[in-house]
Amino acid sequence: MTTVNVNNTLHTFQNSLSAKQLLEHLNISPNGIALALNNNVLPKSKWEEPLENNANILIIKATQGG
């Protein structure tokens, strides 16, 4: 079992999953977002690597403004 904290909300999964799979599960488009894993920016090249149990993920969505 894997527990992941996403933007201060706990999610539990039967199996380990990658950041990419997490986004799919949460119905979040990977376009226009950045991910931080345990307070470090996670490059898109690493989004397919398995997340560790108790990982802390912050999803940051780009917004328009001026």
Spans of at least 5 consecutive residues whose pLDDT stays below 50 are none
Rounded average pLDDT:
94
As for the number of domains, it is 1
Taking the alpha carbons of the first and last residues, their distance comes to: 43 Å
What's the name of the CATH homologous superfamily?
Beta-grasp domain
Task: Tally the helices.
Answer: 1
**CATH 2nd-level architecture:** Roll
Task: Give a written overview of the molecule.
With 66 residues, the chain is mainly beta. It has a single domain, classed as Beta-grasp domain (Ubiquitin-like (UB roll)), CATH 3.10.20.30. Helices cover 11% and strands 36% of the residues. The protein has 1 helix and 5 strands; from the N terminus they run ββαβββ. It has a 5-stranded mixed sheet with strand order 2-1-5-3-4, with no helix packed on it. The longest helix is centred in the middle third of the chain and has 7 residues. The protein is globular, with a radius of gyration of 12 Å. The model has no long low-confidence stretch (mean pLDDT 94). This is Thiamine biosynthesis protein ThiS. It comes from Galbibacter orientalis DSM 19592. InterPro entries: Beta-grasp_dom_sf, Mopterin_synth/thiamin_S_b, Thi_S, ThiS/MoaD-like.
